[in-house]
Amino acid sequence: MIKPNLIAGSLLLLAAQAIAITSQFIPKRYIVEIEENHALFARDESPAHIHKRMHNYLEARGLRYETRHEYGSPGVLVGLSLTIKDESDLHKLHSIPGVKAVHPLRMLQIPDPAQASSSIAKREAYAAYDPKNAPFTDTLHAITGVDKLHAKGITGKGIKIGIIDTGVDYNHPALGNGYGEGHKIIGGHDFVGDLEDLTLPLEPDNDPMDCQGHGTHVTGIIGASPGIAPFNLTGVAYDAEISVYKVAGCGRNTDPDATVAALIKADQEGNDVINLSLGGPSGWTGDFQSVVASRIAGKGRIVTISAGNEGLDGAWYASRPGTGEDVISVASVDTPRFPLQVVDVGGDTPHDPIPYFDPLPLTNISDKALPIYAFTNDTMEFGCATLTDAVPNLENHVVVTRTGSCAVSDLMENLSTKGAKIVFLYSGTPLFSSIRQTVGDFPVPVSKIPREAGEWLTKQFFETKEVTITFPKGGRLVNYEQQTGGLVATTSTYGPSFDLRFKPSVGAHGGEVLSTYPLAKGGYIVIPGTSMAAPYLAGCAALYLQVRGNNADIARQARNFFESTSVMVPESHEENSMLQSVTSQGAGLVNAYAAAYTETYVWPGELLLNDTRHFRGTQNFTVKNLGSKEKKYDVTHIPAGTAITIQPGSIQAARGPVNLTDSYAEVELSSASFTLAPHESKIITVKFTPPQGLDNKTLPVYSGFIQVEAQGDGEEEKVHVSYMGVAGSLFDQKVLDDTDDVQKGLNFPAIVIDQQEDGKLIAQKKATTFEFEGNETFPQLGVRLAFGSPQFDIEFVDASVDLNKVIGSKIPVVGSLFNNQTGMPRNILASPNTGFFPFSLNNNVAFRNGTLVPDGTYKILVRALRVTGNRDNLNDWDMWLSPAMTFKFNETARAAFASDSDDKNVDTPGTRSAGSLLL
Ligand SMILES: *[C@@H]1O[C@H](CO)[C@@H](O)[C@H](O)[C@H]1NC(C)=O
Ligand SMILES: *[C@@H]1O[C@H](CO)[C@@H](O)[C@H](O)[C@H]1NC(C)=O
Ligand SMILES: *[C@@H]1O[C@H](CO)[C@@H](O)[C@H](O)[C@H]1NC(C)=O
Ligand SMILES: *[C@@H]1O[C@H](CO)[C@@H](O)[C@H](O)[C@H]1NC(C)=O
Ligand SMILES: *[C@@H]1O[C@H](CO)[C@@H](O)[C@H](O)[C@H]1NC(C)=O
Ligand SMILES: *[C@@H]1O[C@H](CO)[C@@H](O)[C@H](O)[C@H]1NC(C)=O
Ligand SMILES: *[C@@H]1O[C@H](CO)[C@@H](O)[C@H](O)[C@H]1NC(C)=O
């Protein structure tokens, strides 16, 4: 089969661009799911027995494989995860008696916090530390009502929370300083071991110690005990019993089948709330991990999952497993302020103290006034080039330089040769963020300062003005204000899903959060992302269960309660700002107190209107008075901005922040005002008219809220149901990119045969013969999906096939390369990483069933089914046919390759049916 991984040769640009996309696919690894009620199995056949049968069957057929996990949770998943030695054995997995599906695996990542920090341009002011100022978590808890729950003694006691992440440093004093029965962290499991490379054999054990940091931060947001110096962090549910399931090694990749195993274990060990701060682009509710997470939620666990940090990549990019139908996907809202350290500036020109991105002072630094030494691009590439004798010993200086010319670790190594003792880095962009999470430990203490401060210091240095830096003894903390506080983080991922469900569900604070960090890495850190928002909601869910009752029915109502009571978030702080689209904020920013105590229940929380072709414009919802007194209700329509999700005049998704317009839907209510006695309920019918006058090709996503306001003798209450629809047709949106938007003059799909000096790719234009000697630059097939596709296939067809003459609904296929790929995410169009799928056509090229492609003349057919299309109807597919390609393979080079069986068929995995496939 074709190799969608990197090739040697000159197509470097193509290769580099591909990484983000191909890393989703993991070769040779599959989850085999068994149909539990299959006639082959006895009524009460145990999962263990079924596993044994599966192994016997596979062994009897000579399959070479390793078992990674055995899943035995009836109702959720019974099956095996396997690594097969040879991709061509895939069909044997499909032939296991009673098999329901064979799922390919895609990588899941801990969302990148560096990516999540880009709304920074709007951070400016900082207030001197005032002990009367609320400490960090108190500020957030006052906004979300968690403070009022804590004041009532609601702290998560008796609720069990499972955290699926990179582990936890349970020796942290704020996290109970211990592990096991009787401690805050009562248990957990390590599914992987302390690996960087998850392709190595896993090293599971029962000790989920965190070597990465992320999981410790997440755990602190939920569980940090108050009263612990220096920050007195107060976790949202600090009396909950926490178990931590480690599914990542020391890097950012998580093991996808371990994540499934962890979900099952977290459920089976009785966790009432399960949090996953991880994900990957998808857009599809039916993604396998999403389905497992949703099944567990459906059983009555509250499953909270981060929405993703890809907001800048625009709409239609919802992250799995947060796409799961019954899970709660959590968007990130920027915090109003967070604590940082400052240094004082002395010398010729007065300057305000400069903040550096650490909540704790850098250690082992002199408290004397230190001169600076600055690098620019002319002075040894910001310190990345070899440091010459012109550079003095830097021991008694504060080194100021910029990121970007080399890896920070290399820069630090380099500067340490001059004895540097402290380095301040600034970014060439407005990015001002923490450094620790991404780069780990360095030989020299280093921190980030704002760009303006870095550029100002550099200017002083080169103008030979005297300037000194003094680190206040014992440190000095300030509250750093974010002007974007209370708005959805620009990096929080946009939905909706391609089946027009509501993702994300709700928002919580994630945009720069102070929490615990492994002691070995300093103990505390400020980092951003939806990874930080999801655990905040998990904590709120525990408080909700403690108030309303800890049972499966209450758990299943949780998303409705959280969505209906959340606080609507505006697009900006400008006066008369529109409300942010629900595809970004979900139903609003969490209000934990209201979710736990509101006496008005409205359901369903989401009115899903679908698109113009499948419009469901009349919808009902029910209002119930849960209180003990009569309530009078008023119902009103509050629209949110309509998101223009496809760039006008184009087929490409709009980049973030996605533009909003104030063309709103119109709403007719069956009743706008009524009274309900205690425990009485009423159905309200809402008739929607989509916004008019918009370009339906831009797929405008309109949304908003139907607010129900109760006036009683007690406090007034406001709850809402949220609605969302598309004023266009998803079916009419082109899926397979046939434009030259990526590179002028080169339309995708393309057979890329060369690359110019300036990096431009050259495509095959006419019938061509390729002779494979083994040392030349191979052609690559480049394909982009402008929009998600329910099914995607690449096949070799006979050279005589002509798309204009396809009669009936079948195209004869010679062999498949990459077929039956279901639930494909769209590619991104973000410079400089212009995502597309590359496939190398070289000596190894083989059909999906493992047979090498023989010499001959072929065309390549690429087809992608449109959203809501019928796979049996050729007209519902976007198709492309390559020019004729004659292949002449070098048998010696091939033989050498074939004997190296481990390299053979290195490839995209991923099909549900083996062998070939006809339409
Ligand atoms: C720590 O924070 C809690 C509120 O979360 C507060 O009640 C307590 O007084 C604080 N303790 C200290 C020492 O400031
Ligand atoms: C180097 O800096 C000069 C100004 O100091 C600027 O004009 C030039 O673009 C910079 N070059 C690079 C590669 O950043
Ligand atoms: C919207 O309609 C499509 C096509 O019928 C369907 O597949 C999808 O599930 C619908 N979405 C919702 C939320 O009803
Ligand atoms: C809405 O509720 C009414 C009863 O109040 C019922 O007649 C109608 O069928 C419902 N409509 C939908 C779309 O469920
Ligand atoms: C968003 O709005 C700005 C300002 O009106 C406009 O320049 C830009 O083209 C719009 N972008 C998209 C993707 O619609
Ligand atoms: C989109 O708008 C055009 C022009 O108004 C109209 O002809 C077409 O039917 C619309 N398509 C859909 C799917 O609504
Ligand atoms: C590739 O190998 C062939 C045969 O060994 C040789 O003739 C040819 O020059 C080589 N081409 C390149 C680009 O190295």
UniProtKB/TrEMBL annotation:
Alphabetized Pfam families for the sequence: fn3_5 (PF06280), Peptidase_S8 (PF00082)
Disordered, as annotated region: 900-919
Polar residues bias: start-end ranges: 908-919
Record-annotated Peptidase S8/S53 domain positions: 156-566
InterPro entries to which the protein is assigned, alphabetical: C5a/SBT2-like_Fn3, Ig-like_fold, Peptidase_S8/S53_dom, Peptidase_S8/S53_dom_sf, Peptidase_S8_Asp-AS, Peptidase_S8_His-AS, Peptidase_S8_subtilisin-like, Peptidase_S8_subtilisin-rel
Signal peptide range: 1-20
Classification via Gene3D superfamilies: 3.50.30.30, Immunoglobulins, Peptidase S8/S53 domain
C5a peptidase/Subtilisin-like protease SBT2-like Fn3-like domain residues: 609-724
Source taxon at top rank: Eukaryota
UniProtKB keywords: Hydrolase, Protease, Serine protease, Signal
Record: active site: D165 (charge relay system), H214 (charge relay system), S531 (charge relay system)
Family membership noted in the UniProt record: Belongs to the peptidase S8 family.
Designated name of the protein: Uncharacterized protein
Organism: Marasmius tenuissimus
